[in-house]
Write a structure and sequence with these properties.
141 residues; mainly alpha; two-stranded antiparallel ribbon; globular
């Protein structure tokens, strides 16, 4: 089976204001196929930002998400993940339950944030999770 994009890998299709569709498909003579690389592909569709918080519906998903972020060892990503969970739970609710101001939560739990251990210990119960430790498994020689 031949895929359309194999033949026209860079076809540009645009929707116009009046509902018609136009393209950049141009050939040297009517009925001929354009050569590969002659066209470009662009989209005029509006894309929306993806927010992980929209998909964290229960405590189990939240725990798995935070566990995966902690396993990266990346402090900025962990702070970001905590912020995502706080948004999923409701930033005002987390601030109230943890006794930490919303401003401090937004600042600490951003990509550039660096939450203190005190802040993390205050907000983790409000997020419905706790911090635990497990031994590292070392590979045998």
């Amino acid at each position: 089976m031949i895929d359309f994009l194999d033949i026209y890998p860079k076809l540009e299709i645009r929707r116009t204001g009046n509902g018609t569709v136009g393209s950049n498909l141009k050939s040297k003579k009517p009925g001929s196929w354009p050569e590969t690389g002659q066209m470009t592909m662009k989209t005029t569709e509006t894309l929306h930002d993806f927010d992980e918080a929209d998909f964290l519906d229960d405590d189990e998903q939240i725990a798995e998400y935070l566990t995966a972020s902690l396993e990266t060892g990346d402090a900025a990503y962990i702070a970001h993940a905590l912020g995502v969970v706080a948004r999923a739970k409701g930033m005002s609710k987390v601030a109230e339950e943890s006794g930490v101001s919303r401003e401090l939560l937004y600042r600490s739990l951003s990509n550039e944030g660096n939450p203190t251990l005190r802040t993390m210990l205050a907000i983790l119960p409000a997020l419905g999770v706790r911090l635990t430790s497990v031994p590292l498994v070392q590979a045998r020689p």
